[in-house]
Structures are given as C-alpha cells and as structure tokens.
Amino acid sequence: MVPGPTRFAVTPVHDIKSAFELFIPQSVERIILDNTNLEGRRVYGTNWKELDGTHLHAYMSVLILAGVYRSRDESTASLWDAETGRAIFRATMSLQTFHIFSRVIRFDNRETRPGRRERDKLAAIRDVWDRWVERLPLIYNPGPQVTVDERLVPFKGRCPFRQYMPNKPGKYGIKIWVVCDAQSSYAWNLQVYTGKPPGGAPEKNQGMRVVLDMTQGLRSHNITCDNFFASYSLGQELLKRKLTMVGTVRKNKPELPSALLNMQNRAVNSSKFAFTDTTTVVSYSPKKRKNVLLMSTLHHDAAVSSSDDRKPTIILDYNANKGGVDNLDKVTENVYPQLQPLSESSRLRTLLHLYQLHLCLCYLALLHLCLRYLALLHLCLRLGRNVNGARAVLQT
C-alpha cells in the first residue's frame, strides 16, 4: 500500500472541479435529487419545479462560499442584502429559493423513515453517509502512522444521539469516530456514534470495538489512540492483523503491574518499563507524584531521549502522531458551511459536517495530485465559483 492518492483517484482528477466530484458519485447526487424532489412535490404540490444536478451544484456553491466568507453565524438575509451582502449569492439564486431548497432537501424517503428509524437512528441520512464514507479508502492510502480519535460536531438542537462532552469546545453535539492519516489528516474512515440501540444495554469494550471495526483493511500500520481505546487486549487483536498500537492507558487497567503505579520515591523525569513478548508499558513521571502510562506493541526496548526531560521514545512517537484528528478539526473549522436556517436540524448538521470534510479531503487530494501550493480557502473560493457554473439557474 503506497501512501497517498490511489490510482482510482489519480486517473479522473485533473482540476479542482474533478477532485470535488471524485468524492460525490452520481449515485449520491441521484439519491439527494430524487428525495428532494419527492419532498418538494409533497410540500408544494403542482407548483413544484423539478430540480436537477445544476440546481444541486448551485446550492452546493452557496454553502461553499458561505464557508469561505466565514458566515457561520451570519443570517442568510445579510448575505443576500443588496447593500451589505455579497453579489455572488444574489447572482446564484434568490434568498427565497435558497430557503425553499433548505426546507425540502432530503436524503431519504420520509414516508418510509419511521420503520427504518426503529432500527437505525441515522436513517434520515444513512444511505448518503455510507456511500460517501465507502469512497474514502478508495481515494487515499494512509501512511504508516494512523490516528483513531473522536470528533464532536457542535449541535444543541433535538437529536436522539446528541452527546455531552464537557472537554470539547462545543460541549454538546454529534460524536463521530475518525480514522485518519497522522501526517496529512486525511479521514480514511468515519462512523457516527448513535448511542445504544433502543431498549438495549450500554455497549461493553466500545473503544476496542471501534478500533477493530474502523481499521479493517489496514495492514502494516501503527495505530495511535488515547486511553479510551487502548488496552492490552486491543493490542493483541491488532497484532493478529499485522497492526501495531501506541496509546495512553488508564491506571485502572488490571493488566498493569503495580510497580508502574507506585509513585513513592520516584524521581522527576524518571521512567519505569514493563515488557512481555509483544508489548511494552512505560510509566513516566513528568512531575513529582505524577505519572503517565503508555502501552506499545511497536516498541520493544527502554529507549529514552537525550534531552533534559528524558522522555521515553514511546511518548515522543505518541506525541508526534496523536494529533491527526485534532488537526483535521482545525482545518475544517475554517470552511464550515453553516448558515442559521440550517442549524436546527441534526440531519442537516451531520450532512454539513460531511460536506465540510468533503472540501478538506478534496484539498488534500489536489495537493498530492496536481497543485503543489494552494491555500484551502482559495481552493474553496475557486471551487464555489466553479461548481456554481452558470448562475441564476434557480428561479422561484
């Protein structure tokens, strides 16, 4: 597996627009158009005008440009205002048309949704989401270092799987598990956490299950993860797949030797190691009476750095690769295509997050394929105008 874009991605991509279209196949566009037109006929009856791909692309361009212009909390009325707004929005479609599209856009048939929702809380977007995620590993091969972590899409509206995570900036939102390349932050796999099934018990060993599910298809990679995921059992299961693991571990893990937990008479910047045939555990003391624990199936010695803090190599490698998903958060935050009328729907919020990732992955693909130097916001601006194409295509 050669790191970088796959042959599947290299062949069709020659410019910004083709890179964007690589992530959204026509089958996904067809699902969106069919269900949006179905909802449009239900709401507006015979007054509804059928939408086609040109209309959808125009709507996409508005979302892209809203992200470029940092319109996250700006009202749509101000974007279309004749005096203080931006001409490109008015040239693309009227504000009324944008509101109509935002009202009726659908990703499934709402008439059959209740039955599907009994089994799947993500039923409203499941088909589109799965088809999009399935393409991610076809387009890009991650490098030898892979990060597994969680993201929180901020959302405070009604949602059956909204999570509260006090350590995240938004605190409330939709949690998404992510597997990404540690260096480029390309999202190789994604999974929305929808909570426990209706009437079901809380999931046991969830962290282990997530890593094993989401790294299927990887070989000869190292997985970096935090203490929610890492455990001795996970490390052994990954070794069976020819994968290694480096991660922090919680102090209550039963497999940890008591000698690593005892902090009496421990010197600052000292390390204690424990070994099995396949696994290394280190206890490092950065401060008096404080220690951090890491487990690795990649390292098999007691190597430490020559710097004053004498950090173990395990910690240095963990620190170098743990930020893959966090960096993805920072990059995507700059182009979040969120507008106020869309913010109250968990269905749209999740899809907008997908769309946000789409832009950033398109950017990463282009950097490898045909553009050496291009700022992400410049790409989005050019893409918004490119996808827009012929303007004024939507008429009320």
Summarize the structure.
This protein is α+β, with helices and mostly antiparallel strands and 396 residues long.
Describe this structure as you would to a colleague:
There is one protein chain. By secondary structure, the protein is α+β, with helices and mostly antiparallel strands. Among the domains are: 4-127 and 333-388, no CATH class; 227-321, no CATH class. The chain contains 16 helices and eleven strands. The protein has helices at residues 7-10, 16-23, 26-44, 53-68, 76-80, 87-92, 95-104, 113-117, 126-139, 206-214, 232-240, 258-261, 313-321, 324-333, 346-369, 376-388, and strands at 4-5, 140-141, 145-154, 163-164, 172-181, 187-192, 222-225, 244-248, 271-275, 280-287, 290-296. β4 and β5 (172-181) form a beta hairpin. The chain is elongated and about 80 Å long.
